[in-house]
């Protein structure tokens, strides 16, 4: 329920009550701020500020006040430069940037609170924006378009008339912030009479009719009064003027004064005296004859009468529970509504929003539309679709969210290409064919790309047009709900690849030039356009844009039960140069004039709100520049993400496979690239290859390794090489990284073809826009690769490999091309040499005892050669110091093989 006020120039929101909305944020003062306090007191080290003691003593009063505020924040566990202090980084300019950013965040929260009941209401703006059913037999529509002069809702429900359902300033509603409000009354059916109560409400979820059993409204209200009021008390409700009249007559007599002038002639004390005498005379009367209050004239000019309530009576009234059951009984059910009214906008109606602007009339797909048809075809404009199925057909959730696992094994999916046929696959087909495969493969989460509505299919979903809409190419909103529900039933988390870093430049279906102006959702000028991608850049400093994006995140969690988000391409939003610059690692590059502070504030606030409202939510940052503090708590100067993506790993593997001969591979470079930043290794998400290599004009590893084997004279050797490297690359990437691993759909069994979406360059062919699932049944090499990948995932499930913290990498030899490291009780060994086999290779281990091979890439069931004999699977340590460790293990290492060993 929204309240718009032009006089007060404010926009207040009263959200629908629910359990997760009743929690209040802890605040420092009467001004509400988001604050999550941790125990303990943090002191900021002097070397971080880089400020000499003598200068600190000369602080102005203003700086002293800021210092005191920092100490107050530190008491609550907030330190704007906390993560710099923890890791011992001394950089004055960046530390000052973090302090200023923290101050700007507090100011932003104050401003947001001034416009909302609570800051967290920013995450629930979707409750009243867009098109919503109101219980009082009507539809409410709200849109933000500050540049428009006139707003109307047009569609097939009103023959696309721009005048029938309109809102003008000073009529139905346009506030000072540019919000337009339109009420669309349900249509009274022929022969039906209007409701007896003008505020009659209907429960649209109930098919039976509560309160529609023949009991009249008057009878319901009488029953409510009888329950609420004690005998005699309702006299003062039903006859409100009887008591004042009786008092007046007793005070002044039947012929008392009739005008103010006559009233002033009566002595002031005489009135009070008469009243007290009257009350004394009637002290034995029944309660129904005495008012529950005293009327006293204090004799002051500005205070004619004081009303003094009887405290006993007032407390009794306060303790009464209102007779809500009777009020709810007045609500009628869906059947009564359908009988009396036709919906203002029927289910599946097509509609758009109509604006009159300084540049003329415009029609747009509403920014908050939840179901959109972007490819209307035939030169027609795109349109929104009203989705309001009857309750008996709407999806009902049956499975609860799975528990958050200690490690993430993510299966990245694109619904459209997930089928075997050359077409756009649907949510329903994905449920039937792909979800069981993901479960069998041993992954515990799926990450969906291309789900949010976008105009052109070949853009893979990254040029988003409608952030609140599920792509209609794959099915309905309820189809996607069923997909998430079924995934949860299989124990799979569902993550969404979200694109808030830029937006499509389309005008008819997207947000560009939405209200006819160029600065509605995006920056103007060059800053509003991505330098290379032709997309629009959001204006994160605008409050309307900020709440649009934050509420969008919460919408997917609330409406579709999404478990987490992969924030796509943060580099393009964090810098005005969109990340296309040379980074040397100097902290100055992360706080100079090219950094978008507003974008940083948005990410911090989004992470704070998401994790506060949904404590188990998971957020993943994809940033090729590795912005400092990505996964640090926001209270310590970080951005608050749970994981970050190591994008360097896949680039390295591609470079090695395409450009560098096998014998020239550097083991040191491989390890250094894969481990990334040791400080945040536990927060790292790693993958050998994701959708970028198979979609963005590149090749999958399998296409590089197996692509031309059939035409090559040494096809058998190439097949062995390809199979070995495919398994080793995945095993190394999987076991050396952080607590999260990702694989793109089909790559687990070595999909031999890239993905290429239909576009003009390929005559809109779908031949490469699918997955060849038949290879799992008909081709041995793909069966073997899939079998290995399943056992690799099972290794983490059974041995908790990824959740054991950073591995101890104790052996890297560029000459022998051997890598070895210990993770928990497990020892992993890799021999990347293309020809050299080592019968007894010495490796250091800390614990003495017997080690059993539990995973071997060279096993025949995985397509290997089986060079390691059965009697060699168990090895005993010898008392010899190797690699700086107290014991030695001599293991057989055939060329291009890898092993995982467990201590018995």
Automatic annotation (TrEMBL):
Family matches, as SMART domains: Aamy (SM00642)
GO cellular component: amyloplast
Enzyme Commission code(s) on record: 2.4.1.18
Main localization, broad class: plastid
Keyword line: Amyloplast, Plastid, Transferase
Compartments in which it is found: Plastid, Amyloplast
Region (Disordered): 47-77
Pathway info: Glycan biosynthesis; starch biosynthesis
Record field: catalytic activity: Transfers a segment of a (1->4)-alpha-D-glucan chain to a primary hydroxy group in a similar glucan chain
Location of the Glycosyl hydrolase family 13 catalytic domain: 424-772
SUPFAM superfamilies: (Trans)glycosidases, E set domains, Glycosyl hydrolase domain
Superkingdom of this protein's organism: Eukaryota
Keyword Chloroplast: no
GO molecular function, one term: 1,4-alpha-glucan branching enzyme activity
Alphabetical GO biological process terms: glycogen biosynthetic process
Family: Belongs to the glycosyl hydrolase 13 family. GlgB subfamily.
Descriptive protein name: 1,4-alpha-glucan branching enzyme
Organism in which the protein naturally occurs: Erythroxylum novogranatense
